[in-house]
């Protein structure tokens, strides 16, 4: 894995962590679809193309886990 792929992966995981932390309530189960929806909304609201791209990549990563 090259350094760019590692940085991209780290960025995606950091974004996932922030989104999940904002959604998660104590004792609550968080469905994967809800996380994907939150990432979609975050990407749609973001003005920074890098954030939009990170959200898109995170959505694809999670969607692949659904299959």
TrEMBL record:
Domain of life: Bacteria
The protein's name: Uncharacterized protein
Species annotation: Pantoea latae
């Amino acid at each position: 894995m090259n350094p760019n792929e590692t940085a991209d992966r780290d960025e995606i995981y950091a974004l996932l962590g922030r989104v999940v932390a904002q959604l998660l309530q104590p004792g609550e189960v968080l469905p994967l679809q809800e996380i994907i929806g939150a990432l979609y909304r975050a990407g749609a609201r973001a003005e920074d193309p890098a954030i939009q791209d990170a959200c898109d990549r995170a959505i694809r990563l999670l969607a692949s886990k659904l299959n």
